[in-house]
Amino acid sequence: MIHGIRITSVVAVVVALTLGCGWKRTGTSPKEEIGGGGVSTVELTLHNVTQEQAKKFMEDLDDYGDIEKIELKTWANGTAVYVIDVDGCECDLPAMMGKIPEPGFTYQGRTTRISYTAFDNRPPSLTFVQPEDGFITKDKQIQVVVQVPDEDVAQVTINGKPTSRSGDKFSVTLPLSDGANDIVAVAKDKTGNESKAQIRVGLDATPPEVTATVTVLIEGDVEPGTRVIVNGEEVPVDGDGHYEAKVKVKKGQKEVEVIAIDSHGNRTETMRPIGE
């Protein structure tokens, strides 16, 4: 708390600060504190100014170091409303706003004054620590760890499950289904801002199937001029009627088919045991 100033979950509160020229910053009363989150938007109201003065004030603020962007949202009846993007902690905001140069304007005999409302509408930072996106494992469960460095983080869930916290790390062990698994992490801060991050991991718990073939030599003798077919493939027969063939057989196969066809078309089919 600085000079009675606190940032609420909805507004930044400014107690009246009277400067040398009688210019004031005023605000409303707080309801509950945000925590340690970052302020990203300030709605600043300049009371008792002409439209030209409002534009000049915006030009002056545009060069102010702590302000990333400023926009004149509205001006009506001597009141200008600006939307300002800042980058900082709410604990620094009162001092930041206190350094804004005084405009030194008057409007219809009244001294210009400022009030502002700050909004924590920046979602928390959320990153996966482990596993990496695309990771494939044979284990049917996996430990998932995410990192949320924001001080005002209120809740972190992974695939809808609550997590265990250690510093700025949040972890949970999840079951996996065979194939692709989507993992979704959600982080919320005390203001209600929410971040989501997603990765996909794979489970491959099926052992590889091993197939093997062996090569055996099948040989024999037939009458010269006879055609021989072994395991569906015709093999050469020499002038003495001898044939031989190297045949690939699967594991557990115990015999191969041998077909002999003579020159007259007579056909003999034999199942030849392997190894004999």
Description:
By secondary structure, the chain is mainly β. The chain has three domains: 17-119, Alpha-Beta Plaits; 127-203, Immunoglobulin-like; 213-273, Immunoglobulins (Immunoglobulin-like, Sandwich). Helix content is 6%, strand content 50%. The chain has two helices and 23 strands. A six-stranded mixed β-sheet has the order 1-2-8-3-5-4, with helices on one face. It has a five-stranded mixed β-sheet with strand order 10-17-16-12-13, with no helix packed on it. A four-stranded antiparallel β-sheet has the order 9-11-15-14, with no helix packed on it. The radius of gyration is 41 Å and the shape is rod-shaped. It starts with 16 loop residues before the first strand and ends with a strand. Residues 1-37 have low confidence and may be disordered.
Uncertain spans: 1-37
Number of helices: 2
How many domains is the backbone divided into? 3
Radius of gyration: 41 Å
**What order do the helices and strands follow?**
EEEHEEHEEEEEEEEEEEEEEEEEE
Strand content: over 45%
Query: Structural class of the helix and strand makeup?
Result: mainly beta
**Helical proportion, percent range:** under 10%
Strand order of the largest sheet: 1-2-8-3-5-4
Count of beta strands: 23
What is the terminal separation in angstroms? 98 Å
CATH class of the largest domain: Alpha Beta
Identify the CATH architecture of the largest domain. 2-Layer Sandwich
Q: What is the residue-mean pLDDT, rounded to a whole number?
A: 78
CATH level-3 fold name of the largest domain: Alpha-Beta Plaits
Biggest β-sheet strands, sense, barrel = 6 strands, mixed
**Silhouette:** rod-shaped
